[in-house]
DNA sequence: TACGTTTACGAACGCCCGTTAGCAAATTTT
DNA sequence: AAAATTTGCTAACGGGCGTTCGTAAACGTA
């Protein structure tokens, strides 16, 4: 359970991520960040290219993790309901593994500049589209009674993506239990939970 | 259907709200705002006290609207499921009546400074607590099978509060239809919609 | 016509921002 | 031990920020 030794650059990314999440990207200054690390602001530039450089690294690293987790689900040959359950679990697992990075990924991506911003948009669209496909399959097979798969996926992601706001690793529910709870709630509803 | 003539101050609030929502509070400059209004930055201060002054007005005005809409639901003597349905409808109605203001209320409140920030936190806690009470009543009466009312309310609000991100007044669904869709999804689930 | 109010201008203020440059320790590699 | 690399400092840059100030048109009202 020992953590690998972080390079200075990784330390910077990590501390910046936590500041970006709690104060926002725009409201976090390089001097704040340096102070947190016990060095001077100018010293940061021995390790990083720019402030946005950090943001890009965090955002695309998280995007990769979401995709990797989801790709393991995609291939499986199971009913839509079960596949959605697995997708939710994968999503929750990534979200809870690194809540600060998840927060930056979800809320601060809009401070990316082009062409990173467009690339980010594209990746997110693909991810959502894959989820919509699962819901469409469930509708086609009669498993889901709903008709508007866009609306369903938006609601699904919305309810998942606030998790990082209140999730605490030391809380009483594990990521898997959270995933199960959310799956049940969304698939069966409050009345038939 | 004619709109009342806006005072200059109300115009400023309105334009600022839309900028705060699309660019964020911190990334919106007074010079941006002035440009949008066709005046100089200094001229703004003939009408407003400060940049945060605008933010406060938007946030607390929205908070009042949420409370007002919810208070009409609170008093009604109906089963928990029905009451939750009404609360969702009320919430959606406020959310969709002014999406930019809703966006600022939901995402930019953290740029409030004390004591406004604490006041805001308190109001939101009260709102959430009222929702939790409905869920608790539903659990006590056996109407809801779930056990963790905190989790339920967090998920409920999460799925509602992203509405402003994609809702367009000219879209094919009315606020009431959206409310009904969301209520069904949350109460009955994807499988029994 | 005179007067108070509303609305706006344009310049400037003090401050903070991201970033750069040149230099010097410290650390690692050879 | 020498060389190369990593890490950090101090000082400063150009620029943008929210805001203030004194002034002046424009406007509604008497």
From TrEMBL, chains A, B:
<dbReference type="GO" id="GO:0003677">
    <property type="term" value="F:DNA binding"/>
</dbReference>
<feature type="DNA-binding region" description="H-T-H motif">
    <location>
        <begin position="29"/>
        <end position="48"/>
    </location>
</feature>
<dbReference type="Pfam" id="PF00440">
    <property type="entry name" value="TetR_N"/>
</dbReference>
<dbReference type="InterPro" id="IPR001647">
    <property type="entry name" value="HTH_TetR"/>
</dbReference>
<dbReference type="InterPro" id="IPR050624">
    <property type="entry name" value="HTH-type_Tx_Regulator"/>
</dbReference>
<dbReference type="InterPro" id="IPR036271">
    <property type="entry name" value="Tet_transcr_reg_TetR-rel_C_sf"/>
</dbReference>
<keyword id="KW-0238">DNA-binding</keyword>
<protein>
    <submittedName>
        <fullName>TetR/AcrR family transcriptional regulator</fullName>
    </submittedName>
</protein>
<feature type="domain" description="HTH tetR-type">
    <location>
        <begin position="6"/>
        <end position="66"/>
    </location>
</feature>
<dbReference type="Pfam" id="PF17932">
    <property type="entry name" value="TetR_C_24"/>
</dbReference>
<dbReference type="InterPro" id="IPR009057">
    <property type="entry name" value="Homeodomain-like_sf"/>
</dbReference>
<dbReference type="InterPro" id="IPR041490">
    <property type="entry name" value="KstR2_TetR_C"/>
</dbReference>
